[in-house]
Amino acid sequence: MPITTTVRDCYTPISNYPHVYEDGTLRDVFSTIEANDQWAAQFRSVLVLSAQGCFVGVLSLRDMLQAVLPDYLKNAPGHLQWIQEDISPLALLWQDHFSTRCRQVAALSISNFITPVKATVSMDTPLAKAVYLMANTTANVLPVADNGQIVGVLRLVDVVAEVAKVILHD
User: Fold this and answer.
1) Which CATH number does the domain housing residue 58 bear?
2) Number of domains the chain contains
3) pLDDT digits 0-9 by tens, 27-47
4) What is the pLDDT of residues 92-115, one digit of tens each?
5) Could you tell me which of 105, 79, 78 has the C-alpha nearest to residue 94?
C-alpha cells in the first residue's frame, strides 16, 4: 500500500510554535520559553523570523546554551584547536560568575546564535521526501511554506511518529 501522507497531515502551524524576531535578544527568547507551559515537552527550538515574518532560522536548546558560555569555553571551529585533551574542567573556572554571565548575555542580540535551516518543504511535500530531508540534515525542524509564506514547521518528532505508524501498523 503506498504512503500518501504529506507534510499537511503532520506539520505544526506557526501560531502554535514559539517564535521570536531576529532583532530580539536572548532575554526575549527565554521569555518566550517561560510563557509557554508546554514548551519543554513539545519543542526543542524557537523559530526566528524577520520583521516581515520570513523564516530566518532556529535557536535550538544547544544554541541557547552556547550563547551563555564564556568565549574560552565555546566550541567554535578552530577555537582552542591546539588543545588535544578534555577542557571540561575549565568550566569550573566560571562557576562563581555563572549568574553574572547569564545576566550579561540576556541583552545580546540573537542574530549571532541563529542556526540557519537550508531546506524547506511545502504543504504538499510527500512524507518520503520529508524523511529524506530530515535524515540527511541536522535540522530538527523544517519550515513549511505555502504560497511563498512560512505557515508552520515540520518537526523531526512528528516525522518519526509518522514513520512509526507505518512500521507498526502496516
Assistant:
1) 3.10.580.10
2) 1
3) 999 888 888 766 666 778 889
4) 777 778 888 888 899 999 998 998
5) 105
